[in-house]
Amino acid sequence: MFNICVCDDEELFLNNLCIKLEKMAVKNNIEINIHKYLSSEQILFDIEALSEKIDCFFLDVLIDNRTGVDIANHLRMKGSNAPVVFLTVSKEHVFDALEIMPLHYLIKQEVQDEKIEEILLKATQIVNKYKAAKFFYKVGHELRSIDIEKVMYFEVLKRIVIIHTLNGEAGRFYSTLEMVEKQLDHKQFVRIHRSYLCNLFYIDKIQSKQVVFRNRTSLPIGIKYMKDLKAKYTRYMLRNL
């Protein structure tokens, strides 16, 4: 099941978009479930649950007294990395959303079946790739796994690697960060310190001597890692815009 959330305060447009999504889903044999919201207040009330179960968001750029960018920022803070499509009548707010890295900007006057199909297929491809990615580790004789998308960073402390997520510590195992790196996609994770390996997705900003994550956790940057960190973070941002 592919879960979609559509939030727009124009009910007619919202319903028409949902009809097109359902039509394209049937055409491509994709089973979808659509959650509709007509106000920012409604969607923010359910933000905790939505951040966990929704695979793709369609958000109105200007909705009542808030913006779709505000809502997307709340979702990212809650740990959702679901693709976001912004709905707008113009592109004047495009720069406000650069940090969100939206999948697409959909101009309301240009909502054609072909464009909806293109976006839906791209979103399902991205989400399926995320869901397939697992990190495996051993605790004693037991093999365990965690979704790569949930890992904010790995920390090593005296040969013990600690897995950190937005919700706190998720596991510990004996290894080294060098061994962890061999299992990971180097485009997604970057070493920032001899003790830390970070998921670029969760980085909010890079300051002079530290990385700040979306939940406001901060970690120090080792001097020898700074140049490589900035280069990889820039490439990651550009690749996902």
TrEMBL record:
Residues 135-235 form the HTH LytTR-type domain. Pfam families: LytTR, Response_reg. The keyword DNA-binding applies. GO terms for molecular function: DNA binding; phosphorelay response regulator activity. It comes from the Bacteria. InterPro entries: CheY-like_superfamily, LytR-like, LytTR_DNA-bd_dom, Sig_transdc_resp-reg_receiver. SUPFAM superfamilies: CheY-like. Keywords: DNA-binding. May play the central regulatory role in sporulation. It may be an element of the effector pathway responsible for the activation of sporulation genes in response to nutritional stress. Spo0A may act in concert with spo0H (a sigma factor) to control the expression of some genes that are critical to the sporulation process. This is Stage 0 sporulation protein A homolog.
